Amino acid sequence: MTNCPDPATDDLLPVELLDFLPCNTPQRWIDAALENPALLLIDHAQCEKKAASTAMSLMFRYVDRPELLTKMSQLAREELLHFEQVVGLMQGRGIDYSHIPASRYAEGLREHVAREEPQRLIDILIVGAFIEARSCERFARLIPHLDESLARFYRSLVRSEGRHFEDYLGLAERYAGKAFVAERVARFATHEQALIEGEDAMFRFHSGVPAARDH
Questions:
Q1: Is 214 a member of any domain?
Q2: Which domain does 126 fall in, by range?
Q3: CATH code at position 186
Q4: Which PANTHER family does the annotation name (predicted)?
């Protein structure tokens, strides 16, 4: 664990979430986010839409899991509401919504998902927990640097994304047990840290640190 306390934001985050993530968001990513406010919101909107799509996909694939159906139905509705709210913020700031290529983060985690069931479902749920936890942590890191309106919105997202993290992890533990899930989480944490601390050529909400430029 390479997390270091950040008194300015850690009081917003559940201890369980901080312990779950293998590292803090690097300062270089925060600096890049503040330099690219329009790109941050555009990709944030895409992330909310993809999160809703993922929840719906799980509902269609695992119809025999009533707890999963209930949680994912609730999650999909919340993510779509967040998408609408982000688009509304963008309109208010004169930012046009457009499609942009995704970062390598989500696919980089999904590369390590097992191919066979039932472990495949458990891994997908763990990946969902990482995505929600990292989103929550990044909202919290950004809040001290944002204008009042955006900071207030992100503060509300910290609470909801924290619940989504708990839902994904709780479902995984329900279906596979805490010991097995802890072992899989540790494996995915190594890959997650590499994606967060590694260099990325393009800035995105879940990208790593900006690649060094040649001068």
A1: no
A2: 26-207
A3: 1.20.1260.10
A4: TRNA 2-(METHYLSULFANYL)-N(6)-ISOPENTENYLADENOSINE(37) HYDROXYLASE, TRNA-(MS[2]IO[6]A)-HYDROXYLASE
User: pTM higher than 0.70, yes or no?
Assistant: yes
Say how far apart CA 77 and CA 75 lie, in whole Å: 5
**Domain assignment present for 43:** yes
CB 30 within 8 A of CB 142: yes
pLDDT at 39: 97
* Confidence band, pLDDT 50/70/90 cuts, at residue 212: confident
Q: Which of 178, 174, 197 is nearest to 186 (CA)?
A: 178
As a whole number, the mean pLDDT across the chain is: 93
The total domain count for the chain is 1
Give dist(CA 42, CA 205) in Å, integer.
9
Residues 39-64, mean pLDDT to the nearest whole number: 97
Indicate whether 194 belongs to any domain: yes
Burial tier of 66 (Cβ tally within 10 Å: 0-12, 13-18, 19+):
exposed
25-29, 139-143, 159-163, 194-198: segment of lowest average pLDDT: 159-163
